[in-house]
Every structure is written in C-alpha cells, then in structure tokens.
Design brief:
This protein is α+β, with helices and mostly antiparallel strands and 494 residues long. The chain is built from 14 helices and 21 strands. The strands form 5 sheets. Strands 1, 2, 8, 9, 10, 11, 20 and 21 form an 8-stranded mixed sheet that branches. Helix 5 crosses helix 14. The chain is globular. The two termini are 24 Å apart.
C-alpha cells in the first residue's frame, strides 16, 4: 500500500519549512504538521530578529543577496569579507572547542549558498545597519561578524516562508500535535501518531519541533535548579515533544543538555513569549554600561566581546544572581548607543534619576553599595579612546570582574536603569544527526526513515553561540534533511 505522504515534517518553523521546501523540490509529496494554532505559526523563528550569520566575500557579494528595495535604505560602505575560516573560528571559540566539527563545517561551508537558496524561495534580505553597525568618522561599520537579516525580522521570515509554502504546494496542518512516531517491527519510521489517535503514514519523517525550553520540568531536570523560573522568549509550544518521541524510537541523545541560549530579558515581560513585542524585550546594550545584581554588585565582564558573542550566555549568569534578576545601568553618554527597538519600544521596564542614589532608591538597592560600585568602577578605568565599532581596549584594572572593552565612567546624568531577568531562547541538547541530517540511533547507525534539523538537533552549540547562527543552522540542515528524506522516500540512499 502506498503511503499518502512521501515526507511528513513535524514542526513549522524556519527549519521545518526549509525541510519541506527542499523535499518538495525533489518531487516529494510533503505535509507539515504544526502543534500550535495558526496564530502561533512559525515557532521560535517568529520571535527572532531575523539575523542570519553567513560567510561572505564582502560588500559586493552581499549586494547580490540583499533585496534591491532594502539596499537603498542605508548608505553602503566598504565591508571586509567574513570568511569560512572566520565563521568556523567563531564557532570553535564561543563553544570552547566542543562544537561537533563535522556539523560545524557543513554549517559554515553551506551558509552563503543557503542564503541564495532562501532568496530564490522568496525570502528577502537586508544589510543590518540598523542593528549591527555604528557610525564612526562619517562611515558605517559593522561589528560582530553579522551583516544580513531577513526583511521584517522573524515576523517577516515566517510570512515569507508561509507564502512560499503556498506557492510550491507544501501542505500544512495547524492544531495537529504529534505524540509518537509510527514504527515497523524493525524500527523503521513509517509515519506519525497524532494526539487524536490518527496515524498518518509516510515514507520518511523530519522532526523540527525545537528544544524543551518551554517545558519547566525538563528545564529543571536538565539545566538545573531555578531554571523552571526562567521566562520563555519564544513560543510556548516547544516542550521537547520531538526529542522525546525520537528517543523513544531509539535515537541517540547528543550535545550540551545542561546548556541553553538565554539572554537579558525585560524583567517585566510575560512568563511566555509575547508575539507583539517578540525580540524587542531583549536588552543587549550592556557592553556600553554596567550590570549589577540586586545587591548592587557587578558580576559579569560587560565588555568581554561584542554583544553577538556574549548575549546568549549572560541570561544564565543573571539567573544565578539573588532573586534571579539584575539591572543594566547607563548614563547619558551611553544612551545614544542603545538600540531604540530594545530600549525605546513600548512597555519598557526602566527607572531614571539625576543621581545614582536616586536610582538606587527607585530600584530598591542599597544606596551606599551602588554608589560604591560605580565609584570603584569609574576609578578603575584605564584611559583609552572609546570606539564602539571595535574591541577598543578601554578597560578596567584592579576590580573583579574586569570590564575588558568599552569602559566609560558613569558620570553624566541622567542615569537610566533597566531591570532584567533570564529569558530562555532554546536549549542546546537534543538528538545526534549526521551531516545529512539523518537521526542516528544508539548504535551509531541512522534510524531508518527519521531525519531532524533545527533546535532539537544537538552538537553544534555548547555554553554559547555566535549570534545569528541558529537560524542559519536551521536553514542549512533543514535543507539537507528535506533532501535526505525525499531520497529515502524515493528509495535512494543518500
């Protein structure tokens, strides 16, 4: 009996829609099953800024990628290439050498070509001058190795993906939670079982259901005590279902199960993702100020690296502080450097005062302690030219923790403080896949008929990640998963 579907994709975010399109291009009959209702379409992808890290050959190369309508919005300038070696070095550095070398090489090596593929599907890209560049000496300069994003951010990405799916004949069903994989006696995956009990047969299945960041019990079990209290930045529907189903079917766990992407998040935000504000609740301007806990003490090196290489790990540091909250503090000099979409959008939680004591009073922090912290910080700064476009070496000496770059005295009122907490984005632990996105079993061989991509695939990220590499990984391995699944469905080895 012929299965009604060649490929079933479980999960309708960026990785899932890339897998569906890739399989469709191979001639497969494709169905995407999404647990969430239509109004929550896009999974975590909807909540991103749409930034995608890719190696490139410089400005001329990116001009070929960027949408012509978006090019005119910003002045162009010289842009140094971001090579495969640069990208791979960043992956190795921020994961402390633990990234899966085979997967990382595929991610890096196919990043730029995958952007072209997405453009051909109908996604539109822009240079991210508004988020990733500063003006210096009359020129715009990028920082942090991240130059390109989808027009409209995560919201735009999802809209453009859904439009492409309709054009190409990818079938989608919302409100369709999958509870387990349908398997044959030899372990071959033959379809899925829905929560209603229906069995949908297919020749191959691709899991792209995300991590377990929206499951408080799994967070506490794998990330550790207190993680059940973290706020969820994205969709509330990523509860680890796909990971559980695959493990039940014999898949091998892989990656950093006690690690996650977690950022400084507005302390007044909702417990779960806000689809109206999405990424605007991030507070990523800390390199240009200081961060203190509720005892009035600094606890991180705010200038250790560009924001794109530290923001995903500092949420965990905030959660470890008393009450699981902290405060970012800036003076008037730093205010122009803060992104308006993060620090001037509606409902921002903030406090402003003309004095440090007044600020402490409003925040409920011991006044003497906060004054002492800022005085000690100011006195420890080694005089050096301040330049937000490079790691400028303007640093502190003699205090712990140090500030390694962008240290300026907090001495120009008014002072503004932004209370923040830990906002979890996605978890790093998941399933082991090979470079072609086959899910590997505990014996190290592929589970027949099972493929995976996106945030439920472990092994790429440990401790931290380079900003923008998550969406790129979902696209690269989603595309590969779709091809592999279509090949399996057609009876071809890949």
């Amino acid at each position: 009996m012929t299965a009604p579907w060649d490929v079933i994709v479980v999960g309708g975010g960026n990785a899932g829609l890339c897998a569906a399109q890739s399989a469709r291009q191979e001639g497969a009959r494709v169905l995407v099953l999404e647990k969430a209702p239509r109004q929550w379409a896009g999974g975590n992808s909807y909540f991103t800024a749409g930034a995608m890290r890719a190696s490139h050959g410089g400005l001329a190369d990116l001009k070929d990628l960027v949408d012509p309508d978006a090019q005119g919005r910003f002045p162009f300038t010289d842009l140094a290439p971001y090579t495969d070696d640069d990208f791979l070095d960043d992956m190795v550095r921020v994961t402390r050498g633990r990234t899966d070398a085979d997967l990382a090489r595929v991610l890096v090596g196919e990043s730029r070509a995958t952007m072209d593929w997405l453009r051909d599907l109908g996604l539109r890209f822009e240079l991210m001058y508004h988020r990733q560049a500063y003006e210096a000496d009359g020129r715009q300069r990028f920082w942090g190795g991240l130059a390109v994003g989808v027009v409209g951010g995560g919201k735009g990405m999802v809209e453009q993906h859904l439009a492409a799916a309709e054009r190409t004949g990818v079938q989608m069903r919302f409100d369709s939670p999958v509870t387990r994989l349908a398997t044959a006696s030899d372990g071959t995956v033959q379809g899925v079982v829905l929560a209603c009990g229906d069995v949908l047969e297919s020749r191959a299945v691709v899991l792209t259901t995300g991590g377990f960041e929206a499951n408080p019990q799994m967070r506490a079990a794998h990330l550790g005590p207190g993680w059940d209290l973290a706020l969820v930045r994205g969709t509330p529907h990523n509860t680890g279902d796909g990971i559980r189903m695959a493990l039940d079917a014999g898949a091998q766990p892989h990656g950093h199960w006690s690690g996650c992407h977690a950022v400084a998040w507005d302390a007044g935000a909702r417990p779960t993702g806000d689809r109206e504000l999405t990424n605007q609740l991030t507070r990523g301007g800390y390199p240009f100020g200081i961060v203190v806990n509720t005892d009035g003490r600094r606890f991180i090196d705010e200038g250790a690296d560009f924001r794109n290489y530290t923001y995903a790990k500092y949420g965990a540091e905030i959660l470890r502080q008393p009450t699981g909250t902290a405060v970012q503090i800036f003076d008037a000099k730093a205010a122009p450097l803060l992104r308006p979409e993060e620090y001037a959008s509606k409902d921002v939680t903030s406090v402003t005062s003309d004095t440090v004591r007044g600020l402490a009073r409003e925040l409920g922090i011991d006044e003497d302690r906060l004054v002492s912290t800022i005085e000690e910080f100011n006195a420890a700064i080694i005089d050096s030219p301040f330049d937000p476009t490079v790691k400028d070496g303007s640093r502190t000496e003699g205090i712990e923790p140090p500030k390694s770059n962008w240290a300026q005295p907090l001495d120009t009122p008014p002072y503004t403080a932004y209370p923040v907490t830990c906002g979890i984005t996605f978890t790093f632990g998941g399933l082991r896949i090979d470079p072609d996105a086959h899910v590997l079993g505990t014996c190290g061989l592929p589970v027949p008929g099972l493929h995976a991509a996106g945030e439920l695939a472990g092994g790429l990220f440990y401790f931290n990640y380079p900003g923008g590499s998550g969406l790129t990984a979902g696209s690269v391995f989603g595309r590969r998963a779709g091809r592999s699944a279509a090949a399996a469905a057609a009876g071809r080895a890949r």
